[in-house]
UniProtKB/TrEMBL annotation, chain A:
Gene3D superfamilies: MetI-like (1.10.3720.10). CDD domains: TM_PBP2. This is ABC transporter permease. One of its GO terms (biological process) is transmembrane transport. Belongs to the binding-protein-dependent transport system permease family. CysTW subfamily.
TrEMBL record, chain B:
The keyword Heme does not apply. Pfam families: ABC_tran, TOBE_2. InterPro entries: AAA+_ATPase, ABC_SmlMolc_Importer, ABC_transporter-like_ATP-bd, ABC_transporter-like_CS, Mo/tungstate-bd_C_term_dom, P-loop_NTPase, Transp-assoc_OB_typ2. Residues 6-236 form the ABC transporter domain. GO terms for molecular function: ATP binding; ATP hydrolysis activity; transmembrane transporter activity. It comes from the Bacteria. This is ABC transporter ATP-binding protein. It comes from Streptomyces antnestii. PROSITE patterns: ABC_TRANSPORTER_1 (PS00211), ABC_TRANSPORTER_2 (PS50893).
Amino acid sequence: MTDTAPAAGSVRRLAGALYRRPRLQLSLLLSAPLAWLVLAYLGSLTVLFLSAFWTTDSFTSNVVKIWNADNFTALLTTDVYRQVALRSVGVALAVTALCILIAFPIAFYTARIASPRRRPLLVVAILTPLWASYLVKAYAWRLILAQGGLLDWVLGPLGIKGPGYGLTATILVLTYLWLPYMILPIHAGLEQLPVSLLDASADLGARTGRTFRSVVLPMILPSVAAGSVFTFSLSLGDYIAVQIVGGKTQLIGNIIYSNITLDLPLAAALGTVPVVIIVLYLLAVRRTGALSSL
Amino acid sequence: MEGMAVRLQNLRKSFGRTEAVAGVDLEIADGEFFSMLGPSGSGKTTVLRMIAGFEAPTGGTIELGGADVTRRAPFERDVHTVFQDYALFPHMTLEQNVAYSLKVRKVPKAERLARAREALASVRLEDFGTRRPAQLSGGQRQRVALARALVGRPKVLLLDEPLGALDLKLREQMQVELKAIQRDTGITFVFVTHDQEEALTMSDRIAVFNKGRIEQVGTPAQIYERPATPFVAGFVGTSNLLTGDAAEQVVGDRATYSVRPEKIHVLKESAAAEPEHDSATGTVAEVVYLGGATRFLVDLDAGGRLTALQQNLETSSEDVAALRGSRVRLQWHRRHNFPVPHDPSTHDPSTEGPLAKDPAHT
C-alpha cells in the first residue's frame, strides 16, 4: 500500500470488482443488445418461418394453424412464383451492375482526383439524397416517367420515347435509390489504395486501362462486393418502387405485400425466398474476401 | 549528346506557391551510379519523380538517352523505379509482381515466367515465387521491388530512398548488393537518399541538393574533401569550421576553413608542433565513446570548437572518460585545411538539422 492509494468509496470498489472480472463486465455490456437481437430479430424471423407452414381459410382469409408444407410446394411448383423469383433476382443483379458502373467513376473522382479539402463535401453531397423520403423520391420518378412527362419531353426531340412504367422503370428507380450505398464503399476502397501502386504500374509500362484492370479492379473488388450486398439485398426486398413505377410488373416484394392480408402463411413462405437468396449471395461474396474487410 | 543517360535542363517544379525544384541542370552518364543527396524537402525526390514521369515539370526539359521525354507518360519512358514503400502489388504473387512489366509488354508466358524466376533468383528469393508480398519481411520485399524493376532491363533505374525502411545491418548488406548489381548489369542507377554515408559508399558521383537547387556535383571524394559550399561541408560529414580570429591564429588567414574530424590528431598539450602541420591547444569539453572510435569535442583557446575523431586502437572506454576536461593539442596536416567559400544565402546546416553526422557515427 502506498500513500497514493485512492480512498475506497463504494462506487470505486464496484468498479474495481468489475475490473477484476472481465467476463462479468462483458456480460453487462452485451446482455441488453443480445436480448434484443435474439428476441426481436431472430425471433421474428423464426415466427415468419414457422407461420409459413400454416394455411389459410380461402373464404375468410383467416389463418388456420395446421402444419403442412403446402406453401413451399406451391412456391416450387407454380410457374408464376418461379418466374417472379427469377425476375426479382434479375432486377437485383441489374440494379447492382448499373450501380457499379455509375458509382465507379464518381467514387474515383471523389476519392482520388478531387482535392482532399473538397472530399468530405462531396461525400456529404453523395449522402444528401438519403435524407429525402424514399416515397417522395419514388413519386418524383413517377412524374418523370409518366406518359408525356419530363423524360418523354426531354427525349422527344431525339425521336425516342421514355420507358414508361414497367420493368425498366423499376430498375432505373432502384438504381437511383441505392446508388449512394455503392459509391461509399468504393470511395472508401479507392481512398485506401496507395498511390504508389498506380505509379508503379505506370512505371512498369502499363497504360491506364491495364492499370485499371490489373491493379485497381482486383484491389477494389472487396469494396464493390460490399456495396453490392447493399444494392442487391435492398433491391430484392423492395416493394414500393415497383408499385409506384413498375406498372404491371410483379416482384417478390409486391407479391408478398399483396398476400399479407389475403394469405399470410403464403406471404411468409414467399418472404423466406429473398432471405435464402441473400444468404446464398453473401456466401458467394464471402469468397471475394469482402466480408473480412468490413 | 552522346553517352548521356539522363539530362536535365533548368528543371523546375512548383506546388502551389512553394517551389520544390528551382532550376536543376544535371547530366548523368550511361552506366553511372549517381546519387541525389539532400535533407528532406530539398527537392531530390521531386526530381526523381519528374524523371520517372509521375510529376510534370513546371519548366525545363528532361532527356533520356538523348530523347526529350518531358511530356511523355511514365509508361512511355524506358525507366523503372524502386519505390520507398516498395509498392508491390499485394494481390499478386512474387512471380506475378516481377513478371508484370513483361506481361504488360506481351512477352510470351513461358518466357516471362522464366525471366521472373531468374530475376528472383538474382536477389536470392527463388523459393518464394508463389508467395504474396504480405508474407515477406521488409528486406525481402525490398529485393522483390528491385527484381521487378530490373527484370525489364531499363536504361535507367530510379531508386527512391530504397533502403530507408531497413535496419542498419540489412541496409549495409543491401548497399553492397546494389552496387554489385549495378556493376554487373551496367544499368544507370539514380539513387535518392538523405543518408550521406550511403551516398558516399555507393556512388560514382553525387549531387547535393538544398532548397530545390544543386549545391555541388562531384565524386564522393570531391564532395567530402572539397565541399563547394558551407552547406555541403555541413551536410556531408561533420562541419568543423574555423572562422575569424581562430582561423587567423591557427591557419594564419582570416577566412573560413574546414577540417574533417578524422584528420585531426589529439595529442598531449606539451607535444611539439610538426612542420607542415597546423595545431591548436584547447580543453576537452566532451568525449563520446563510439566503440571503434572516440569523438572529442575540444574548445579551442583561440575560440570555437573542433570535433576530432580517433580510432580506438588501444584505448578503452574507461581511458576515454578520464580525458574529459583535460588539456590537449590538436594537430593536422595543412593539406587537410580547405577554405569554404562564404555564401550568405545558406547558413550553416549543422546547427539546423539532425542529419549532419560524421562518417564514423553509424
